[in-house]
Structure formats: C-alpha cells, structure tokens
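Anyone else keep sequences and structure tokens together like this?

Example one:
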Amino acid sequence: MRAGPKPISLALAGAALLGGGTALGANASAPGEISLFSHPTTSGTSGTVLIVGAIGDSGRYLASDRNGKPDPQGSYVKVVLKKGTFEINVAALTDKLKSRDAATCSAIFSGSSTAAVLRGTGLYAGIRGTLRTSELHALLASRYTSGKNKGQCKLGGNARPIAEYNSFSATGNVSFG
C-alpha cells in the first residue's frame, strides 16, 4: 500500500468538492445557511470564531453593548472576521444552571435562544437573518479553606474556577441586501 498519494488525492477531492481553494468564501453575498463555532476565552467575553456555509471566514468575537463598544455584560456579540464584521443580538440568551454537584464542586450552565444578525460591514454589509444560538459553560470550582464558608464550593461572583470549558455556537439563515 502506498501512502504518498492519499493526502494529495484527499486535498484535491476536497478542493473540487468545495469549488477550489481560491474561490472558497469569495461569494459571501449569496443567502444561505451558516454555522458559527466559537471557543471563548475563560471570561466568555471574547474568543475565536469559525463560520462555515454561506459565509466562509474566521476571526474573533467580542461581547459588546448595543453601540458596538466592548462590554463584558453586553447583549451583543461583535464578530470581527477577515472580510468584514457583523453583530449578533444575544439579549435573549441567558445561561441556566443545568447541574451542580457540591461533592465535586462542579457545575454546568447552558442556554439557547434565537438571535438577530445585523450591522454588517465589508463583505457582510447589509447582512440580516436569525440564528439559533447555544452556549455551554462547565466548570470545576475550588473550596474555601477558611472562614464561615470553609469547605464550601467557590461558585459565582469573582471566584476563579480550577478548570472550565466554554463553547458558543449558532446556526441559521442569513441574506444580504
């Protein structure tokens, strides 16, 4: 069995399936479905973004207020991509406690909602649509070592978790106009 040609064959097949490497993502003005995947930072207020489908682009996102100014408690997500920007109104997305285990000091928070896409620039000027957003936050907390809460889990407030996992994703249809 020859292993050499396989990666090249797979790459060529992938390029043919996606319409060639140079054209990938070039026509973002066609309406269609997109899927957004993000890996937030531990604060959840920013992170990397990958978008596939009718938009093929990547970049970063930042929590912001309605005017596009950075705000960790903001109701908008400003998506800054290589070919332009747009915002997602996530005001309806509220995380809910799904499970908490005091014995292991672990917790899972998750939420989902619909969100409007708006205020595009660059290649995404005129973007509009609705996405179904989902967020998941799992964490392992430390315990208080002294004081009135000794032995209890440090959850909430400004307590820093020992370890955590965050994800944010969205899927829906967009159009440009």
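And example two:
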Amino acid sequence: MKCQRCARIAGGECCKNAPGATIPEDFGMPETIQLAAALASGRWAVDWWEGDPRPECEEYDQVYFVRPAVTGFEGKIYHPAWGGPCTFLKLPGCELSAEKRPWACRVLEPHDPQPCKLPEGIGNTKQFSACAWLPFQAILSAVADKQVERS
C-alpha cells in the first residue's frame, strides 16, 4: 500500500507536519450530511486561504476549505492551522481507510529516498482545495456555523 511505503520511506513526515486538504467530493457535496457529520465529530476543521486562491483574482478576502483537525485542536470548527500533526495519524499510520483519506493525502506519490511528492500541476494543496471549495462557500459556512452553535 502506498501509505505503508511512505511510512517506511519518510516516516509519515507529511502527516506529522500538516493534515491533508480535502475537495468537496470527499464529503459528497452538494449534499451536506457527510460534511455535517464530519464537523460534528470534532476531527475535521474548516481552514481558509487568505485572499482569493485563484491567480490574478481578487473577488474573495478568504476562502474556506476542509481538512482534518490538527492534533490537540480537535473540536475547533474554524481553525487556520499553519501546521501540526493530523488527528488521524496513529501508529503505524493513518487510521482512515485509503478511500476515506483527504484528497491531498490520496494524491501524494512516494519517492525513494525523498518524502512524498504531489503530481505535476497541483502546486499548493491548500490553494487547490480552496479553489475546489469556491462554489460551496455559502453551504460550507452554514454547516460550520451550525456546528459552532451546537458546541
């Protein structure tokens, strides 16, 4: 399995440094049931990209996207992490099944002897994720705000 190879090669460095960003399809968007359940679990958070993530666009001041919580910040719905270990990283690796992992984790490619790399053309996964979540900003905010009210 790809992640077992990564753990052997890089010791899970990506997961220790930052949780992987998601895309709306990870939660079955535009339906909100999976997203609401994920945020209610306390193990997922809403992060944001400062400014408009699209090159040469200035429509947004910030754009929300979803990622796993950073260890120690579980239950915090809105959390703009600059890094930290993913809440799903356990020994011997990710506790999520391969198909349930965030998009950014699924696209990583192991490279001997270096750490994993992203496929060509993706660039920054947070920026890519923020772009993917652009059509769902109102829905994401509404679901997240409802979870904040409940907690």
